[in-house]
Write a structure and sequence with these properties.
- The protein is of the alpha/beta class.
- It has two domains: about 60-285 and about 405-490, Alpha-Beta Barrel (TIM Barrel), CATH 3.20.20; about 290-400, no CATH class.
- It is built from 18 helices and 21 strands.
- Helix 8 links the parallel strand 11 (about 215-220) and strand 12 (about 245-250).
- The protein is globular and about 75 Å long.
């Protein structure tokens, strides 16, 4: 067959981790037709890739573009860094399945994480949400995990209690239905309500339903700090008892006093793998994280849902209890962002309502000083400012928190089972990972620091991610595979996004091809969107 497009004279990093191979890559329609080392392939359209690396399109296994893809399907911050497939539905809190009666409250609670669509949602089931994505015609391919929180909300509401046997059965059936509709697996966020109300036995039973499909269980663990070993042990136990494939989200250790635990945690995972537990992880290459500001509150403050939390924030006595818990410096059974970062280490990147623009980009101490018209504030006053902001914005506020170690980031990056993700929240002044993750690894950690090799970095960005999430025919430069490809300059690729100026596109990403069609050509947007909803391949 005759190719329609040929990438000429490039160095192929095929996504397996093998060394670079000089070759042409031929594309026909939406698949790779041939990889030819003789450089003899020709087509009507050819792109000269001399001095450039041809790699599989990068796969973002932890994304928060769930609503943004419908409002801005071009997703320029992702396609411009070489991402050609994203996995939504993360942290157990997302947009489907959802009952119509729950939609307004869920939309409010998700505003700090996924933004505000600006209109009512026109879906309830996973299949209806995936159809909405396809109608939007995204620039990149999109896959989905069924969120534990959505499943629990549908069956149990926001109740903080142990699930009954009949409720477990109902949640299992909703998971099965969602996976039949195309979900890749189940996600949870064990610091977020209502996921945090579940015990380990509930996770095991729900994951038995996921394992029936050989799906994946993706978890923001119960602790990434003081009780990191217990949290990892819980993930191992879930995998061991249910048979599910376990994947740790945005693997990190938070809090200076906890960083030295990394070697023991890595040893736990390696032993579990030797024991037959299928456990992997992903990571973003930064020392700061990003989530909803409401995560600073202790878990019990979220019981009953957003309205109940707002009542607590309006009560002086409840505020006092929350403040005491947040300012407690002793080891905490919950991830206490305030203890890790303090008010100077928590930045306000997004307020989706558009209110308080003067606070965007400021840390909580700075924003509190501005409000109180003072040069400095006490820690208690900064807590009160945060409470006031959450109450005024009905919990719809994002945050960036600085709590991690560069040394730990590097150790995790070197693990062979850890792939790359952005975990990128996209509103306001976002974390720079939303714009720079993949070029940052190629420029900073491959070229400048030689921490990992270029072929290994590409494997972590593509082939390993596809293998972990069972994305068939994605993630490799190989005959018959999906023609999602990124071409970059290995000598110049680098991120430009910073915490001060985060909406900056990277350098060195020359061409991005989705479904056989150039979406980025010579570093600039080029063609109509070719992405689709990627559904789980049936393997019941």
């Amino acid at each position: 067959m005759t190719p329609e497009l040929v990438l000429k004279n490039g160095l192929v990093a095929d996504g397996t981790g093998r060394g670079l191979i000089p070759a042409d890559v031929a594309i026909r329609r939406n698949y790779i037709l041939a990889v030819d080392a003789s450089n003899s392939l020709h087509a009507m359209e050819e792109l000269d890739c001399k001095g450039l690396v041809i790699a599989p399109g990068f796969i973002d296994t932890h994304s928060h573009s769930d609503l943004r893809v419908l409002a801005e399907p071009e997703l320029p911050m992702k396609i411009r860094q070489g991402v050609t497939l994203e996995v939504f539905g993360q942290d157990g809190i997302s947009v489907a399945p959802i009952r119509s009666a729950d939609q307004p409250a869920v939309a409010r609670s998700l505003a700090g994480l996924d933004g505000d669509l600006g209109r009512a949602w026109d879906w309830q089931s996973v299949t209806e949400y995936l159809s909405a994505i396809e109608r939007a015609r995204p620039a990149i391919d999109c896959a989905y995990l069924v969120p534990h929180g959505a499943v629990r909300l549908s069956v149990m509401g926001m109740e903080d209690r142990k699930a009954r046997p009949e409720e477990i059965a109902a949640m299992q059936e909703l998971i099965r239905q969602s996976m039949r509709e195309g979900a890749l697996g189940l996600s949870t966020g064990l610091i977020y309500p209502p996921c945090c109300f579940a015990d380990t036995s509930e996770l095991i039973e729900l994951c038995r339903a996921v394992a029936e499909f050989d799906g994946i269980f993706v978890s923001h663990m119960r602790s990434e700090s003081d009780y990191i070993e217990d949290a990892v042990a819980e993930m191992i136990e879930v995998g061991k008892q249910s048979g599910v494939r376990v994947h740790i989200s945005h693997f990190k250790i938070a809090g200076r006093e906890n960083w030295a635990r990394i070697d023991g945690v890595l040893a736990m995972i390696e032993q579990a793998q030797r024991d037959g537990v299928r456990i992997t992880a992903d990571q973003y290459p930064y020392v700061a994280g990003s989530t909803m500001l409401g995560a600073i509150l202790p878990p019990w403050a979220h019981a009953g849902g957003v309205e109940e939390t707002l009542k607590r924030l309006a009560s002086n006595s409840e505020r006092e209890k929350m403040r005491v818990a947040m300012l407690d410096r002793s080891p905490s059974p919950w991830d206490n962002f305030w203890k890790w970062s303090g008010p100077a280490g928590i930045v306000i990147p997004d307020i989706p309502s558009g209110n308080h623009p003067e606070d965007l980009g400021k840390n909580l101490a700075e924003a509190a000083c501005l409000k109180l018209q003072r040069d400095q504030v006490s820690e208690a006053e900064a807590v009160e400012f945060a409470f006031d902001l959450l109450l005024a914005e009905r919990m719809g506020v994002g945050m960036i928190s600085f709590s991690q170690s560069e040394e730990v980031v590097c150790k995790i990056m070197q693990q062979p089972y850890v792939n790359v993700c952005t975990d990128g929240l996209l509103g306001g002044k976002p974390h720079p990972r939303a714009y720079g993750t993949y070029p940052r690894i190629l420029g900073r950690y491959v070229r400048e620091q030689n921490l990992i090799s270029l072929p290994e970095a590409v494997r972590k960005m593509s082939g390993l991610a596809a293998e972990t999430f069972q994305l068939s025919y994605f993630g490799k430069i190989q005959d018959g595979y999906q023609a999602n490809i990124v071409v970059f300059n290995p000598h110049h690729v680098i991120d430009r996004a910073t915490f001060e100026d985060s909406k900056q596109f990277p350098e060195g990403i020359e061409h991005v091809i989705v479904a056989g069609t150039p979406a980025i050509r010579y570093g600039q947007s080029y063609s109509p969107n070719q992405g689709k909803a990627v559904r789980r391949t049936s393997n019941e």
